[in-house]
């Protein structure tokens, strides 16, 4: 990279002072701040501050905001400031409104800068607590509020000025934090916002159409800005110049982004964005009670329309008796089978008589107990030997209603047998109870239909007759995901494979979206010049990307977006653009897609997620900086490690290209990353044998003897 020309960083200085703006007092702060920037330039030759604009305004929220917007929202990225510092209006006086004015404009907060400024000035004067600084980023500009006193302003700025060049570069997407921490400034000659030696051509800037950055819960790349054109409600392809300039297909590769513009969020934040942007179950349908009902969720409580049993039924095969008769020989006067009773009339039993009954048969009127056949003896039969005439009851002390199921004792008529929100499982219990009360159809939430699309010029369907050429690979993601979806009980639309050509991708996605509720793609979401998914979602499909990077391994570039509805009556479509690496695609499908699909199907709360259990590691695992979902095998162990309980080992090599890491696994072992600041992970590079970790179960636990 060339080191000939330094990076120029443009600064706007905004003095907030009603008296200075009216010319009543002199502004002494601007010259001091200029000096501070000038002396900083001496120690950082690679980056040079240029005070490009100065202004004095009165303590007015509107005035402050209008200047800052002018300096941060310019459509021409080259015209924007990299840094805006304000001075004044940060105190406790009623007229002090600078923090409020600035806060409202920030797209992202930078509390670290605030902390640094406050602690620096607090070490000089306790009055530092009387300042209310704020700091953050609007579009790609960093904004700091300095105190009004010239001395305080300089002290505050000096506390952070060394870090600001890096921060400014990151804010325009030109320097990763990794590079920053490993030290060393990067010199850039072409850029997306740093003043320009020769800015790259920015096609489509003229007619660029932007959404404002007010959508809550939406993370936008730092390069995003609003230019005052407001987004109309009809979705229309829009471009985001500072981003598209670099990532639009056809753009010269040298002007590519060299650090991802997508904030790296945590798995938990990703889950929360997914749940926020996933609509509630869109529709309900009435379905028959049969095995195809498995996996559906009931909309309402179901009450029993009848009692089970509907009549007093015998629990055993034997003889219905009048309990007060006691042991002795009795005539067998009638028979009751578990069968429809002719004329729907129960026989009547009198004292001194018994009736032969079978298990489940209606018990005659007058009987108060049933004696098991084992507790009787035959005394006399008919001459042909085909019928009993008399039996001896041997049992004494028959309890009242012994061996008789009372009406409604299994299911009471009118009681709730299944509550709304219950999943019909493959265990059979739910189907069974519905059937037991004669319910043959129920209202459930419709399940989403999911489309699966592989992307990539190299990707070839495995049924192609012709073998692979150099650079080609068989498509494993599409069959893998289709299998997982089928296993979870969702209908899959196979959308095939699409090449890394922007127009083809757009056409395929546009045609596919109306046919599905959720669209899953794999590949094309990282930093490669043919990684087209993110720009296509944003620019062409007018979608909103809610996140584009997650601090996890595998699955870092996982992308989640919603595509606006095409008609007023339809819902937004969910789109998961999963990474192309096979293990990444499969793991992120389990971690992110499954909960969304379950939410759409009516599952609530934690039941949307994979079940989580604690297991004892049988194998040492090395910690990554990112949270890792290690494919593993969880099984019951009698005594080996941990003294009996669930233990886990890995499936072997965990590289995200290795599709085999999912073979034979039944769990994702959640290993906290070194960067997560979890107390148990902090500074501990290895998770040792015998330590307990969470396992997210994706399959059945291996039972005793399975592995022997
Ligand atoms: N400069 C950087 N490069 C990469 C980064 C990064 O942060 N900076 N992230 C890496 C990570 S992590 C992942 S994961 C991958 C994600 O890549 P993409 O989602 O862009 O996917 P592709 O580039 O299209 O493919 C990646 C890999 O997967 C293979 N692949 C793609 N589709 C399929 C399929 N249907 N079946 C089987 N295998 C597939 C493809 O051939 C590639 O080998 O990016 C890293 N790069
Ligand atoms: O996130 Mo990637 O999936 O580590 O390989
Ligand atoms: Mg890629």
From TrEMBL:
GO cellular component, one term: cytosol
Organism domain of life: Eukaryota
Pathway: Cofactor biosynthesis; molybdopterin biosynthesis
Family membership: Belongs to the MoeA family.
Annotated Basic residues bias: 227-236
Keyword Magnesium included in the entry's annotation: yes
Bias (Low complexity): 211-226
Cofactor(s) needed: Mg(2+)
Disordered: annotated segments: 182-260
Function: Catalyzes two steps in the biosynthesis of the molybdenum cofactor. In the first step, molybdopterin is adenylated. Subsequently, molybdate is inserted into adenylated molybdopterin and AMP is released.
InterPro entries noted in UniProt: MoaB/Mog-like_dom_sf, MoaB/Mog_dom, MoCF_biosynth_CS, MoeA-like, MoeA_C_domain_IV, MoeA_C_domain_IV_sf, MoeA_linker/N, MoeA_linker/N_sf
UniProt keyword annotation of Transferase present: yes
Catalytic activity reported: molybdopterin + ATP + H(+) = adenylyl-molybdopterin + diphosphate; adenylyl-molybdopterin + molybdate = Mo-molybdopterin + AMP + H(+)
Species this chain originates from: Terfezia boudieri ATCC MYA-4762
The name this protein goes by in its record: MoaB/Mog domain-containing protein
Keywords attached to this entry: Magnesium, Metal-binding, Molybdenum, Molybdenum cofactor biosynthesis, Transferase
Record-level Gene Ontology MF annotations: ATP binding; metal ion binding; molybdopterin adenylyltransferase activity; molybdopterin molybdotransferase activity
MoaB/Mog domain mapped to chain residues: 12-167, 451-599
């Amino acid at each position: 990279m060339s080191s000939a020309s330094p990076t120029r960083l443009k600064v706007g200085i905004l003095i907030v002072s009603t008296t200075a703006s009216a010319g009543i007092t002199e502004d002494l702060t601007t010259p001091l701040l200029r000096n501070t920037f000038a002396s900083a330039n001496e120690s950082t030759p690679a980056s040079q501050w240029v005070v490009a604009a100065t202004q004095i305004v009165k303590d007015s929220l509107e005035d402050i905001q209008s200047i800052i917007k002018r300096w941060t929202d310019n459509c021409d990225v080259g015209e924007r400031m990299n840094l805006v510092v304000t001075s004044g209006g940060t105190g406790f006086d009623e007229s002090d409104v600078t923090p409020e004015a600035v806060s409202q404009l920030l797209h992202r907060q930078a509390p670290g800068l605030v902390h640094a400024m406050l602690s620096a000035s607090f070490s000089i004067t306790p009055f530092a607590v009387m300042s209310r600084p704020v700091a953050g980023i609007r579009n790609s500009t960093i904004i700091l509020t300095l105190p009004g006193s010239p001395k305080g302003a300089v002290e505050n700025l000096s506390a952070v000025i060394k870090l600001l060049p890096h921060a400014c570069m990151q804010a325009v997407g030109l320097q990763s934090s990794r590079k920053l921490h490993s030290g060393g400034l990067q010199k850039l000659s072409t850029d997306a916002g740093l003043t320009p030696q020769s800015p790259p051509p920015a096609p489509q800037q003229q007619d660029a159409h932007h959404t404002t950055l007010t959508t809550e819960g939406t993370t936008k790349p730092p390069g995003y800005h609003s230019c005052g054109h407001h987004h109309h409600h009809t979705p229309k392809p829009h471009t985001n110049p500072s981003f598209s300039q670099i990532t639009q297909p056809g753009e010269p590769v040298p002007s590519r982004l060299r650090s991802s513009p997508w904030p790296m969020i945590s798995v938990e934040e990703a889950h929360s964005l997914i749940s926020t942007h996933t609509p509630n179950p869109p529709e309900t349908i009435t379905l028959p009670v049969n095995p195809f009902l498995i996996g559906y969720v009931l909309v309402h409580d179901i009450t029993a329309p009848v009692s089970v049993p509907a009549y007093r039924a015998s629990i055993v095969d034997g003889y219905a008796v009048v309990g007060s008769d006691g042991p002795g020989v009795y005539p067998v006067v009638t028979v009751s089978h578990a069968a429809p009773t002719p004329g729907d009339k129960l026989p009547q039993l009198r004292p001194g008589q018994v009736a032969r009954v079978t298990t489940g048969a209606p018990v005659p009127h007058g009987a108060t107990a049933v004696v098991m056949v084992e507790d009787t003896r035959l005394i006399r039969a008919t001459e042909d030997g085909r019928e009993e005439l008399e039996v001896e009851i041997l049992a004494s002390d028959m309890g009242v209603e012994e061996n008789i199921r009372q009406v409604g004792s299994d299911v009471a008529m009118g009681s709730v047998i299944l509550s709304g929100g219950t999943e019909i499982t493959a265990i059979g219990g739910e189907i069974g109870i519905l059937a037991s009360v004669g319910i043959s159809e129920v209202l459930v939430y419709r399940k989403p239909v999911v489309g699966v699309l592989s992307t990539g010029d190299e990707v070839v369907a495995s049924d192609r007759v012709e073998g692979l050429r150099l650079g080609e690979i068989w498509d494993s993601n599409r069959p893998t995901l289709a299998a997982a979806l089928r296993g979870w009980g969702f209908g899959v639309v196979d959308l095939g494979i699409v090449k890394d050509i922007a127009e083809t991708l757009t056409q395929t996605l546009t045609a596919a979206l109306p046919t599905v509720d959720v669209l899953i793609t794999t590949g094309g979401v990282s930093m490669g010049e043919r990684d087209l998914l993110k720009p296509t979602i944003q620019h062409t499909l007018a979608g909103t990307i809610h996140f584009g990077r997650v601090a996890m391994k595998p699955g870092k570039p996982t992308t989640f977006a919603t595509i606006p509805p095409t008609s007023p009556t339809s819902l937004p479509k969910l789109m998961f653009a999963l990474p192309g690496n096979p293990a990444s695609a499969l793991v992120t499908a389990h971690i992110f897609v499954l909960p969304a699909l379950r939410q759409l199907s009516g599952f609530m709360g934690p039941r949307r997620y994979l079940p989580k259990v604690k297991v004892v590691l049988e194998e040492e695992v090395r910690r990554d900086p990112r949270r890792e979902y290690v494919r593993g095998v969880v099984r019951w162990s009698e005594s080996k490690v941990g003294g009996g309980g669930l233990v886990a080992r890995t499936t072997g090599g965990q590289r995200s290209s290795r599709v085999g890491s999912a073979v034979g696994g039944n769990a994702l072992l959640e290993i906290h990353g070194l960067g997560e600041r979890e107390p148990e992970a902090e500074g501990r590079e290895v998770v040792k044998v015998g330590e307990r970790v969470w396992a997210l179960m994706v399959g059945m636990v291996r039972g005793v003897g399975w592995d022997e």
